Every structure is written in C-alpha cells, then in structure tokens.
Amino acid sequence: MTNEPNLKAALELAAAGLPVFPVWITYNRATLRFDKQPCIKGWQTKATTDEATIRNFWHLHPYAAPGLALGQASLVVLDADRHGGPDGVSAFQRLVARHGLPKGVVRINTAGSGEHWVFRNLADDPLGNGEGVLPGGINVRGHGGFIVAPGAIRPDGQ
What we know:
Low-confidence stretches: none
Mean pLDDT: 94
Number of helices: 5
Number of strands: 9
Radius of gyration: 15 Å
Distance between the termini: 20 Å
Largest sheet: 5 strands, antiparallel
C-alpha cells in the first residue's frame, strides 16, 4: 500500500523532467512544525526521473512525500515562510515591490501558508542554501538542497 497522491505527484514531476526522491514528513511537537528528512542516503545524486526507480522508492517508503533535488534540477527556491517567526511572505512582497521579479519565475503555495518562488539557478556558479542573507522568514534553497515538491500531501492532509 502506498500514499497514492504522493506517488502520483512524484511520477508527474519526473515526467516533466524534475528529479525526485522520497522524503519523510513528521510533526515535531516541540517546535510545532513539520520536519522534512530524506528517506534515502545520497539523495542529491539518487534523485531521479526514472519511473521504475521512483516506484521502487515508494515501494520501500510507501508513505513518503516527493522531494525535489534542486541541484539536479538546476533550480533555486526562495522559501518565504509563515510559521512562528518573521513573516517571510510579507518580506518577499516588499522585496518584489522594490526590485521586481525576472520573467519565468514560478510561485508555489506551500502547505504551511508560505510560498516557494522557483528560479532557474546559475549555470556556472549555482547558488546553494542559505539563511540570514535575505530578510527574516526567507530562506534560499539551491544546489545541495531540496524542497518538498509541489503536489505533495503532508500527513495532516495539507
């Protein structure tokens, strides 16, 4: 038995050319937030678009959510959060009002009322992961990082 919506999301993302891998999402009662952890070691290189491999991942980890390996996908994500700290969504809106956005940027609403802003990463010197460079509540996820993929369903149904 698998979590069909998450397997379906993983397969759809892979069909679009985005490398995926399985991620555990668990609720942390101490922080009142959802923790996300790769189910497999070496996920940065094992993330794949191969349907048979993805089906095997979900056979081994049936309740996993799909993760998107940003380095393999050549993407960088500005992760604007809204969970207990500074309001990253409002901070990001202020940055956009001041500086604008390049063409081709994709916004994805997250299950935690935040937003992922997806950009093509730099080819020659890709951006990695960081916190504290942008206003509070906005994290950078890039080469060597991942996000829970669009279409994923958390254990609480969000």
